[in-house]
Design a protein that fits this description.
0% strand; 5 helices; mainly alpha; 80 residues
């Protein structure tokens, strides 16, 4: 995700909007992104974090990228 948000380093995020909702196993458990598996291995196994964030946007019906101040056009279904 560093190519989009411009961050480098461990456990850094550009904005509180840019988080993936993960259960404990996927966060810090054996399959966790913040465990021994690490980001690169996690993304190889489960997909890029940006694609998961795009899917969250589609599910909730608005762009969290927009709220984070990042221009990343994605299609979301607007709910009324």
């Amino acid at each position: 995700m560093t190519d989009i948000v411009g961050l480098h380093g461990m456990s850094m995020k550009a904005n509180d909007w840019l988080v993936i909702p993960l259960d404990a196993l996927m966060h810090t458990g054996n399959l966790g992104i913040d465990s021994g598996m690490g980001v690169e291995t996690w993304e190889l196994r489960f997909g890029q974090q940006v694609h998961h964030l795009d899917e969250v946007c589609r599910l909730i019906g608005y762009s969290i990228w927009e709220h984070a101040g990042i221009n990343r056009p994605i299609r979301v279904r607007r709910t009324t």
